[in-house]
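in:
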């Protein structure tokens, strides 16, 4: 049996969808979480296991693999969460990239320190938010409560995981006025494997 070890910071962020995917797929994994203050020391000790010097990294039988979405696709295929055919897979990928566009806009605003630049980035993020949320809401509505094909895929898990980060970054429930998205997130978090993971994971501020 293969061994899996996921290394990322002690936050949700871009690794949380991978944690969701591993959990939902029934894949046991070592969830290594690094505190930001410890990162320089940990990074220097892990250089041979960090292909691009960054995290997340998933080690499968000791071999490291990088890039969060590449890792997520790998796990999604293992867990039968990547659609029934290539067209569904492409639709899932397009949905995931759309979500990531929104996440990056919010992240740019959230992490910026310069007040003037931060205000500009905030304007951009908040202009994008209703457009993206409306589009995603409509997609779930026309697909029977899921993003693609009327069934659970890794796009659904990604949104449920990203929602936690986006809620924290924006200090609001981004799904509040979008009932289909809200129901989807609740449905994902109620899945036995996801629920068990959420109950045992460390508490974080983000």
């Amino acid at each position: 049996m293969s061994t899996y070890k996921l290394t990322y910071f002690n936050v949700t962020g871009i690794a949380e969808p991978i944690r969701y995917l591993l959990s939902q797929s029934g894949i046991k994994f070592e969830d290594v979480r690094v505190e930001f203050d410890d990162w320089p020391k940990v990074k220097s000790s892990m250089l041979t296991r960090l292909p691009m010097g960054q995290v997340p990294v998933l080690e499968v039988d000791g071999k490291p693999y990088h890039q969060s979405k590449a890792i997520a696709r790998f796990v999604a295929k293992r867990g039968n969460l990547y659609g029934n055919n290539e067209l569904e897979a492409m639709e899932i990928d397009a949905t995931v990239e759309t979500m990531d566009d929104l996440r990056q806009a919010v992240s740019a605003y959230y992490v910026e320190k310069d007040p003037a630049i931060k205000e500009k980035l905030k304007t951009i993020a908040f202009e994008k938010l209703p457009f993206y949320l409306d589009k995603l809401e409509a997609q779930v509505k026309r697909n029977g409560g899921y993003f693609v094909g009327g069934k659970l895929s890794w796009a659904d898990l990604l949104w449920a995981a990203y929602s936690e980060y986006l809620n924290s970054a924006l200090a609001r429930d981004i799904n509040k006025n979008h009932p289909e998205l809200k129901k989807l997130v609740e449905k994902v978090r109620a899945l036995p494997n996801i629920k068990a993971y959420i109950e045992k994971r460390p508490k974080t501020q983000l």
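note: The first strand starts at residue 4 and ends at 9.
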